Amino acid sequence: MQPFESDVIVVGAGFAGLSAARRLCAAGRRVAVLEARDRVGGRVYTETHHGTAIDLGGQWLGPTQDRALALAKELGLATHRQHVEGHNVLHFGGKRRLFRGTVPRVDAASLAAVGWVWFRLDQLAKEVPLDAPWEAKQASEWDATTLDTFLRTHAPTEGARKLLRYAMETVFAADPADLSLLHVLFYIRSGGGLDRLLSSENGAQQDRVVGGMQRLAEALAAKLPEGTLRLSTPVRAIEHDRDGVVVRSDDAAFSGSRVIVALPPMLAGRLRYAPAMPSARDQLTQRVPQGAVIKCIAIYERAWWREEGLSGHAITDLAPAHVQFDASAPEGTPGVLLGFIEGAAAREWSDRPRGERRDAVLACFARCFGVRAGLPVHYVDKSWTEDEWSRGCYAGYFPPGVWTSSGKALRAPIGRVHWAGTETATVWNGYIEGAIRSGERAAEEVLRSER
Ligand SMILES: Cc1cc2nc3c(=O)[nH]c(=O)nc-3n(C[C@H](O)[C@H](O)[C@H](O)COP(=O)(O)OP(=O)(O)OC[C@H]3O[C@@H](n4cnc5c(N)ncnc54)[C@H](O)[C@@H]3O)c2cc1C
């Protein structure tokens, strides 16, 4: 079979792959972007229900996510603010309380403990070098500790531990017992601090693209020269030597001088390489699992909770959807509530019948917002662990021992094979912003290597 020829092949048309391709095309390179799905956007996916855009994947942008915000502006896409007006709901231990801001008003001891852990994590995070977390002075100690151990040691009350646990699960889509403390500190610094990661106002949950986040990926793809993007083309194998690369899908081959693999490490590890990857790189891809999340959406005729003075944001200790948000458009018609099932719960609930999942999630909504929340006109959810081309979300995370032993293999090119994807980002790792930055960085790496 005669390979299709380009200068650079990009594997994956998520934000990382599309951003890499855009930069390379702007520099005059012929690029082939090979995407397994029949759409672009990857972990960003917008479905439409009777004209209402529903983001089942990544949906928010926020301050300091400069590349993503600039891209939206440049491509002519408007953003709107996340609805935050009104009271948030905390439903713990059978009691419903209202609060404003990011941290709920719990008992004084728990509040103090949350404040202390928050402060401590932010403080320690400042000591982690973003481009080399393994070089932090206490790297080996932090990488041998889980977030769970840290929380048990520093948060003396059950209320504080519960709150922090739900907050962290919402950030990582992973259980504190699975996360290296070093990774958590790296991630906090990468996103600019815990306040930024956890807040809606002035934080990572502040802005949304009008019409859904996938429009941004589509607009980016539309700017690529015709013929650059090939959908429904899963890459299976990469052959690489000192002269170039050949990238193989099921029924076609693509040759070029270099390849950028813009996939999460775990999926990159499932490709066949010839010659095989060095052990350091292969060990890394074996040891960075994807988080697990089910994003659950209920649609109502209007956002009636707003009329009751509620923001639509809630935290409950009723499983499985502990954290909830208003996901309606600004006008509130229709009304949309969103809940997350994360980590071990997402793995468990992925295997349960859909109807059971729906009932359990709606019970969580009803617990926080009243019986009306249990009676939506439509319900939809998406379990990202089931998705063949993501196998989990929001991102790959580092369990204990991985940053310090395998971290160096995360971005280092292997000959003519380069790595992108949000997991390789130093700034806003795990987010759309990180994906864009990683693609641009990998493209620069390729261009530099030619000079
Ligand atoms: C439920 C959910 C909520 C999220 N919320 C937010 C949020 O609010 N804000 C935010 O910034 N981020 C959020 N994220 C994370 C964000 O979506 C990701 O960080 C980002 O989209 C990752 O982009 P990427 O290009 O690195 O990877 P991906 O989007 O995963 O792109 C990889 C691409 O490669 C393709 N692919 C896989 N295997 C192959 C193969 N063998 N051959 C060819 N192609 C292949 C995939 O189909 C995919 O298109 C969320 C994610 C999820 C799932």
Automatic annotation (TrEMBL):
One matching Pfam family: Amino_oxidase
Single GO term (MF): oxidoreductase activity
Binding site for substrate: F340
Keywords associated with the record: Oxidoreductase
Superkingdom assignment: Bacteria
InterPro entries: Amino_oxidase (IPR002937), FAD/NAD-bd_sf (IPR036188), Flavin_amine_oxidase (IPR001613), Flavin_MAO (IPR050703)
Binding of FAD, residues: E35, A36, V235, E423
Domain Amine oxidase: start-end pairs: 15-447
Essential cofactor(s): FAD
Family the entry assigns: Belongs to the flavin monoamine oxidase family.
Stated name of the protein: Amine oxidase
Species whose genome carries this gene: Sandaracinus amylolyticus
